[in-house]
Amino acid sequence: MTSLSTLLVARQPWLSTAARALLAGVLVLAGWPKLLDPEGTVRSVRAFQLVPESLVRPVAYGLPMLELALAAVLLLGLGTRLAGAATAVLMLVFLGGIASAWVRGLSIDCGCFGDAGALVSDPVPGYVRDILRDLLFLGAALLLALRPRSRYALDGLLGLHPEPAVPPADRPAGTDRPAMTDRPAMTDRPSARRTGAPDVRSPT
Amino acid sequence: MTNARTARSAREKSAELRAEAARKEARRRSMLVLSAVLAVLVVAVGATILVRTAGDQKAAQVAASSRPPRNLADGGIAVGNADAAATIEVFEDFQCPACKSFEDANAAQLAAWVQAGTARVVYRPISILDRSSSTEYSTRALTAAAAVVDASPAKFVAFHTLLFANQPAENTPGLDDGQLVSFAQQVGADVPAVQTALKQRRYDTWIATVTDEFSKRGFTGTPTILVNGVRLEDWSPENLRAVVTKAAG
């Protein structure tokens, strides 16, 4: 258990990179067809019967661009914490929309990937599938909001989310330096601290 | 001893100050990047909404100068006795496979009711499946149908039958304009009228309007069948017969 969590902590930058790639891909697949078919997106948004008619068009016009812009910054790894948080909020909105359509007994396809809120005879399997899928994406987005440090990210080049500093191995015990409580990677690994941790990411 | 302690404490203090300054700098940089990203998101989304809304307004101005096809009744294509006890409204898309199923299952019965004066059929074709072909077949097929209604209303049902009998598969290019024109010729409709309408995409505005009205009424898929204004979930021939017989009764 400890070794697993240590491994996850050590691998977190790579996990966050994977989360960025996953979400960027999904958002492109979701945003692009909606951008190409604005009228279909308008009908999809309207089919949920959640947005007042006067806001249906602005929402339908803005949503695909929001998805694509989020995909772009996630792919670049720019402002990852904000992009992750925004994606998480978006996923919560989608989850709420799908769940409410289900609860109200609407027979619609979610239109998530531009399939235009079409009528379906038995919508429940679709709702379950969409909710499970969005929960996975929500998890990935939350990971980025909480642990934005990742490999291959512009944030790194700009000096955001620096590597946690490795405390000097020769520091005498009992110095009154404040504990680094926000650095679980360090506190989890007393052995690493003793040996000076030449490679924090070694999966031992 | 005291001196050494003081020296070390000073060293630590300056290290702490440096660390604090570095933290502040990192926070400032982080805020800068996040603000820039937020600005990009807001501008991209806002600009898209503005451009599309402006496009809508322009389209509305164009709409004022275009006209729907002639010979419509209540915005639809009515066939049969206007005094019939049952009115069957059929919302359909010429690209929609389920609409073809409805047509295959019920066309003969509809024709018989129209013939007998039992029911009036109001066709309300719309276009929601343009993305199911690479050539916007939904809209082009409906454009041709609208031109037939406009110029040769008596030929509409025959043209409608031909369109469903030759419905192209989804995610194909669909039938080209020449094929649509040849159907018009086959049923004896005004061929130049159909050609011109297709070339000019003459009914795009009307098609967008009727499709939007369909969506605004809360309908989400085709075919949507109404009998005397009440939506039919089950449009099998048996249920349709039962409902229409009751309405006409």
DSSP summary, beta strand count of chain A: 0
CATH architecture of the largest domain in chain B: 3-Layer(aba) Sandwich
The most extensive interface, with participating residues per chain, is: A-B, 44 and 34 residues
Q: Cα distance, first to last residue of chain A?
A: 13 Å
The ordered H/E elements of chain B are: HEEHEHHHHHEEH
Report the β-strand fraction of chain A as a percent range: under 5%
> How many domains is the backbone of chain A divided into?
2
Instruction: Let me know the average pLDDT of chain B.
Output: 93
Secondary-structure content class of chain B: alpha+beta
Cα Rg of chain B: 31 Å
* Residues in helices of chain A, as a percent range: 55-70%
| CATH hierarchy class name of the largest domain in chain B | Alpha Beta
CATH topology of the largest domain in chain B: Glutaredoxin
Any idea how many domains of chain B? Answer: 2
Superfamily (CATH H level) name of the largest domain in chain B? Glutaredoxin
User: What is the helix content of chain B?
Assistant: 55-70%
Shape of chain A: globular
Number of H- or I-type helical stretches of chain A: 8
Uncertain stretches of chain A: 174-204
How does this model look, in words?
The complex is a heterodimer of chains A (204) and B (249). Chain A is mostly helical and 204 residues long. Chain A has helices at 2-36, 38-47, 53-76, 80-103, 124-146, 154-157, 184-187, 190-195. In chain A, helix 1 crosses helix 5. In chain B, strand 4 and strand 5 form a beta hairpin. In chain B, helix 3 (137-151) runs parallel beside helix 5 (177-186). Chain B contains 8 helices and 5 strands. A 5-stranded mixed beta sheet of chain B has the order 1-3-2-4-5, sandwiched between helices. Chain B folds into 2 domains: 1-65; 77-248, 3-Layer(aba) Sandwich (Glutaredoxin), CATH 3.40.30. Chains A and B meet through helix 2, helix 3 and helix 4 of A and helix 1 and helix 7 of B.
Describe, in short, the structure shown.
Chain A is an all-alpha fold and about 200 residues long. Chain A is built from eight helices and no strands.
